[in-house]
């Protein structure tokens, strides 16, 4: 024992190692340069049995042993592998070198992380499902419909905030460019609340539609929404507004018919 009363002799170190191996869910192992197990022990190793004397190339697939091969080339690292379907191990690989610096083997420690990896996979799958659902919701909230030759309609429902307005604007302008529409109907029948920001979004959308050579028409403004627009002092006189989507479509058809009758110069 030293002055602190702690025994640091080989027997004490062996006892400490044995206590750790018997009580922690780990596997401590050592492999020589030929791939043979020279040591394999630990509480988590009990189900596998003693693999001492066996070759890792016979025990595990090449995609698992590649990390051992890298350690045998002198690279210390940590890696999660799947030696058997559904069984994941996080392992630390430490090269062992002789006095000349040559790698003579690898010492490692492995921890069973199967439950954590399964939980991570389930979480990833759930996040992917949520993302797909969000994509569906985004597509549903901006359903650009071709209601007539040269006329598309966008029924708006719910609250239009800045992020949603940006998505609506992008999808709508893409649809105008793709279809070559002459008229765009923005139907507000499903919009219950309009504030200054929402009104500005509508004006901005109609202006952007005009820049692409189409005419924007707003339909379906509800009485309570109209009162709100008046009360906040918003001027929507620059927008063409009609009571219903049907009236808006009829207006667009009349306009296109009139344009066809105009003489070309």
Q: What does it look like?
A:
The chain has about 260 residues and is an alpha/beta fold. The chain contains eight helices and ten strands. The strands form two sheets. It has a five-stranded antiparallel beta sheet with strand order 2-1-5-4-3. A five-stranded mixed beta sheet has the order 6-7-8-9-10, with helices on both faces. Strand 1 (about 25-30) and strand 2 (about 35-40) form a beta hairpin. Helix 5 runs parallel beside helix 6 (about 195-210). The longest helix is centred in the middle third of the chain and has 28 residues, at about 115-140. The radius of gyration is 36 Å and the shape is rod-shaped. The mean pLDDT is about 85.
Largest sheet: 5 strands, antiparallel
Radius of gyration from the alpha-carbon trace, in angstroms = 36 Å
Percent helix, as a range, is 40-55%
Strand content range: 25-35%
Give the ordered list of helices and strands.
Answer: HEEHHEEEHEEHEHEHEH
What would you call the shape? rod-shaped
Mean pLDDT: 85
Distance between the termini: 110 Å
Low-confidence stretches: none
How would you write the strand order of the largest sheet? 2-1-5-4-3
Structural class of the secondary structure composition?
Answer: alpha/beta
Total of helices:
8
Number of separate strands? 10
């Amino acid at each position: 024992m030293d002055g602190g009363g702690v025994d640091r002799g080989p027997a004490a170190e062996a006892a400490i190692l044995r206590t750790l191996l018997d009580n922690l869910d780990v596997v401590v192992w050592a492999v020589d340069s030929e791939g043979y197990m020279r040591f394999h022990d630990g509480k988590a190793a009990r189900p596998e049995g003693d693999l001492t004397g066996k070759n890792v190339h016979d025990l595990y697939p090449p995609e698992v042993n590649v990390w051992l091969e890298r350690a045998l080339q002198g690279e210390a690292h940590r890696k999660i592998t799947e030696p058997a379907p559904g069984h994941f191990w996080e392992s630390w690989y430490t090269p062992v070198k002789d006095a000349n610096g040559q790698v003579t083997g690898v010492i490692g420690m492995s921890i069973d992380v199967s439950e954590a990896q399964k939980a991570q996979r389930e979480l990833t799958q759930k996040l992917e499902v949520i993302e797909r659902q969000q994509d569906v919701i985004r597509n549903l909230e901006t359903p650009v419909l071709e209601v007539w030759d040269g006329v598309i309609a966008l029924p708006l429902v719910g609250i239009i905030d800045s992020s949603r307005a940006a998505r609506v604007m992008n999808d709508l302008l893409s649809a105008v460019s793709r279809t070559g529409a002459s008229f765009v109907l923005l139907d507000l029948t499903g919009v219950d609340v309009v504030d200054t920001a929402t009104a500005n979004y509508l004006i901005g959308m109609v202006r952007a539609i005009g820049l692409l050579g189409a005419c924007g028409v707003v339909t379906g403004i509800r009485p309570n929404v109209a009162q709100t627009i008046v009360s906040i002092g918003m001027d929507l006189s620059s927008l063409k507004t009609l009571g219903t989507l049907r009236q808006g479509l009829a207006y667009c058809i009349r306009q296109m018919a009139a344009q066809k009758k105009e003489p070309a110069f």
